[in-house]
Specification:
Elements (H helix, E strand, L loop, with lengths): L15 H7 L9 E8 L5 E3 L7 E4 H14 L3 E6 L9 H4 L4 H12 L4 E6 L12 E3 L2 E3 H18 L3 E4 L6 H11 L8 E6 L6 H7 L18 H14 L3 E5 L5 H10 L4 E5 L1 H12 L5 H15 L3 E4 L2 H7 L1
Parallel strand pairs: 1-3, 1-4, 1-12, 4-5, 5-8, 9-10, 10-11, 11-12
Antiparallel strand pairs: 2-3, 6-7
Bound molecules: ligand PBG.
Length: 323
């Protein structure tokens, strides 16, 4: 086949119907997970400044929202908790009556068909806001594992369908798998945030979860965003430790990692379209600089095209109206 003029790629771009027919990547609401933030109280709804359209909600409100989400066709949520109190042992993370555990029990009851994923991390529950146990200015790896494992088990006990460790300590997947299995939760999968970069794009989330570290930063445990080969080693090790699926984050700045992980590992690949990716578009759209719907759909399509099977996104709810 000769090139131009015999070949004209514009032929299939001529009409919307032709473009629709040959489109390679489509967004499907069933591939989306919507993040929810549970906070103490009743009837509480605290809109988040940096995450337009998203709010911290008390458990009763979350249950209402979950019902609404099911009605829209969103069948999976990722739960985060904002506890009333924090301490040096992150007790609220694995408290039987902790905020996420309460939310889980309420959602299991109200929306039994909703897939309930939980973020397993200590930062929201630690007085210092780090994802692990602190000694001086060190984040101590091995001591953190026990707390993370206890947290995962308590989520499973409260009804989580899958746990998602996001702390980036070495060995946490193995520790969590061992603890889940010894408590008879061998059926609960681990979606590991395997390749999580120390990213500036988590900024709005830290306001939402009130989890900014009080000293230093997360660069001694989260990955250097410059390293793609190391990201694949993280994925490989987590699979060896028993991860059932891999999560890569942030999404848009990591499209190469998503594509490489897709090619290399035959497990479900999740991508987290994080708070900053969402907030940037929201802020620009609010100023009339771009069209939010088109920019959001283009972002999410790029993440899917790179190879993500599942996308965690703050746009999931709006997407239901757009699709
Ligand atoms: C908890 C956690 C974070 C995010 C998900 N889980 C924050 C962080 O690591 O600082 C970020 C999510 C987002 O930005 O939307 N460790």
């Amino acid at each position: 086949m000769s090139a131009f003029p015999a070949t004209r790629l514009r032929r299939f771009r001529r009409t919307g119907a032709l473009r629709e027919l040959v489109r390679e990547t489509r967004l499907d609401l069933r591939d989306f997970v919507y993040p929810l933030f549970a906070c103490p109280g009743t009837g509480v709804e605290k809109p988040l400044e940096g995450l337009a359209g998203i709010a911290q909600q008390s458990v009763d409100r979350l249950a209402d929202e979950a019902e609404q989400l099911m009605g829209l066709g969103i069948g999976a949520v990722l739960l985060f908790g904002i506890p009333a109190e924090r301490d040096e042992a992150a007790s609220g993370a694995y408290d039987e009556d902790g905020i996420v555990q309460q939310a889980l029990r309420a959602l299991v009851e109200r929306t039994p068909n909703m897939v309930l994923l939980t973020d397993v991390c200590l930062c929201e529950y630690m007085s210092h806001g780090h994802c692990g146990v602190v000694d001086g200015d060190e984040i101590v790896n091995d001591l953190s594992l026990e707390l993370l494992a206890k947290t995962a088990v308590s989520h499973a006990e409260a009804g989580a369908h899958a746990v998602c460790p996001s702390d980036m300590m070495d060995g946490r997947v193995g520790a969590i798998r061992g603890a889940l299995d010894s408590e008879s939760f061998e059926q609960v999968p681990i979606v590991s945030y395997a390749a999580k970069a120390a990213s500036a794009f988590y900024g709005p989330f830290r306001e939402a979860a009130e989890s900014a570290p009080s000293f230093g930063d997360r660069r001694s445990y989260q990955m250097d965003p410059a390293n793609a080969r190391e990201a694949l080693r993280e994925c490989e090790l987590d699979l060896q430790e028993g991860a059932d699926a891999l999560m890569i984050k942030p999404a848009l700045p990591s499209l190469d990692v998503i594509a490489a992980a897709r090619a290399r590992f035959d497990v479900p690949i999740f991508a987290y379209n994080v708070s900053g990716e969402y907030a940037m578009v929201k802020a620009a759209a609010a100023r009339g600089w771009l069209d939010e719907r088109t920019a959001a759909m283009e972002s999410l399509t790029a993440v899917k095209r790179a190879g993500a099977d599942v996308i965690v996104s703050y746009w999931a709810k709006e997407l239901a109206g757009w699709l």
